[in-house]
């Protein structure tokens, strides 16, 4: 009677635990199928037990699962599969909100040898729902990505800040040093920006900065990097671009900024820009020199009357 009660309690525990239990023999036939597996698969135990697991679930990774089970039979040791390696074994729905970004229950699986007299008789596969772990990790990754985005973006214009721009320039400069090719940089600023701030106020000045950044961002390539250097000064990194082509881009930037007045807070502000450019060339020791040369040509454009583009001769 005691043994019968213990067996009954054991069966009850197996049926009610909060993870899946599947027992397979060496031929991949199902010997046990608990309530968790029944509830999430829609297959009752009597429909599955005694049959090949692949008959009921043909979508299972047959080769991978067969090898996994066979290795446990041969070695007699535990095996494990994490959701990070294989997101799921059984394609079950999860009980998380549909907005969590995970379509299928994420699962950790343990493969445990069931032995008798030192011989592996069957393998017990446990299936744990770890969807919450994946959701938490996803949310954490999104928070980190947002924080990194904030750290790399200028708070007024939304484009890259100086720190991020210089990091991108450094990487491109190292690539250019190793592989050669072309690399150019443009620096530009808004002509008489202080007068705009003094006349219309900083709210209008900030609007001019935002519109300028947006116009230029829409006029350049995806692979180019636009950044705000500070104040009203901007920088544009042009990978795989010669000095002659950079001059064409410089004129496009200048006309993009100045062709249409900026409307902000009920006023129309005529905006022009001066642009300076430089290109990498043999013997250039560091990317900082490229910035300094572009800066020198920018001030040359200022001295020549503003609203023009000048590149290093």
From TrEMBL:
NCBIfam families: GGDEF
Reaction equations catalysed: 2 GTP = 3',3'-c-di-GMP + 2 diphosphate
Name listed for the protein in its UniProt record: diguanylate cyclase
An MF annotation (GO) of this entry: diguanylate cyclase activity
Family annotation (PANTHER family): DIGUANYLATE CYCLASE DGCM-RELATED, REGULATORY COMPONENTS OF SENSORY TRANSDUCTION SYSTEM
GO biological process: cell adhesion involved in single-species biofilm formation; negative regulation of bacterial-type flagellum-dependent cell motility; regulation of DNA-templated transcription
Gene Ontology CC: one annotated term: plasma membrane
Domain GGDEF, first and last residues per copy: 181-313
InterPro entries tied to this protein: Diguanylate_Cyclase (IPR050469), GGDEF_dom (IPR000160), Nucleotide_cyclase (IPR029787), PAS-like_dom_sf (IPR035965), PAS_fold (IPR013767), Rev_trsase/Diguanyl_cyclase (IPR043128)
Pfam family, one: PAS
Domain of life: Bacteria
Signal peptide: none
PROSITE patterns per record: GGDEF (PS50887)
EC number, as in UniProt: 2.7.7.65
Positions in coiled-coil regions: none
Gene3D superfamilies: 3.30.70.270, PAS domain (3.30.450.20)
CDD domains (UniProt xref): GGDEF
